[in-house]
Amino acid sequence: MDFFETIMFPFKWLVSIIMVGFHEGLTFIGLPEASGWTWTLSIIGLVLVIRAALIPVFVKQIKAQRGMQLLQPDLKKLQDKYKGKTDQLSRQAMAQEQMAMYKKHGTNPFSACLPMLIQMPFFFALFQVLSGISTNAREGEGVGAMNHQQVVQFDESSIFGAPLSAALLHGGVTNPAVVILSIVMILAMTASQFITQKQIMAKNMSEEAMASPFMRQQKMMLYILPVVFGVGGINFPIGVLIYWTTTNLWTMAQQFFVIRRMPTPGSPAAKALAERRAAKGLPPLSVLTGKKDDEADAAAAAALAAQAKGQRVQPQRKNRKKK
Predict the structure, then answer these.
(1) Do 258 and 273 share a domain, yes or no?
(2) Beta partners for 162?
(3) Which of 77, 102, 166, 217 is most buried, taking the most CB atoms under 10 A from its CB?
(4) Is the domain of 304 the same as that of 210?
């Protein structure tokens, strides 16, 4: 067993234990043991468990992203301060001031990548488990917590005629069902990832953050990452594509909820939320949180003014004089 296998061993066991647990639960309520849909639901259950466990990390990620966005004007000033200074002392001083700024605001550029980094070992573990299904089925061995019978069941299971353990570039090109399902899943996987990042940039970032050099790099990654995962997807078994597409859909829905309910101050989403609260007669979020957001409060005031202008003034009833 090499070094990488040693590291991945506990993750393979954890992934397979969760899948087996869901599989046994689904068969207990009446689903067929060897059905591809039973194993597909087990993979989706694996996603739900991992993503639910990552919710606290996601909350930290949101705080870090907001901190980075609010920090962009200060970072721009720092970059202007040391613009054109390429000597070692200036570069070191800039790095020290930048780290002090991150520490003061409780954020750093790497926090935004934390949920994905935590998920990667589970993704690779699932890839190893599913990639070794066919071999272990022939050799009479299990994989992780899956016994040989379960390995054979998984190897023989399929959805829409495509085996869950088949990959497009590993024997799947001869099966039209594998080709079609792989292409559909890859498109869904890349599209959901693109939409998630796009909605963050379009709705949940202030103008200052969008104009920063950091965001220009993020725009490049917006188009590069889906292409990378799309090209890599042709090597993934159908089961891995199901996992990655499901987790991307979870992320997309999660981001939609956060952007709508807890937007970044100064962003278009924050203005939209302020207008919705004003239309319902609710106070601005700045009153509840104590954090001032002039743009959002201005949007709320405009919404209130428009609402008041659109309302018809009711005539007052005059009291009749008593005779």
Answers:
(1) no
(2) 159
(3) 166
(4) no
Per-residue confidence band for 23, with pLDDT thresholds at 50, 70 and 90: very high
Q: Are residues 134 and 259 in the same domain?
A: yes
CB count within 10 Å of CB 290 equals 7
Q: Which pTM does this prediction carry?
A: 0.75
Distances (CA, A) of 272 to 175, 209, 266, 275, 285: 49, 18, 10, 5, 12
Which residue matches tokens 């990832």?
193
Q: Both tokens of residue 151?
A: 């390995």
Buried b (16+ CB within 10 A) or exposed e, 15-51: bbebbbebbeebeeeeeeebbbebbbbbbbbbbebbb
- Domain range holding 62? 3-83+95-264
The Cα–Cα gap between 230 and 237 comes to 13
Split into its structural domains, the chain has a count of 2
| 317 inside domain | no
Q: Are residues 229 and 284 in the same domain?
A: no
Q: pLDDT tens-digit profile of 304-317?
A: 555 545 544 444 45
- Look up tokens 């919705």; give the residue: 276
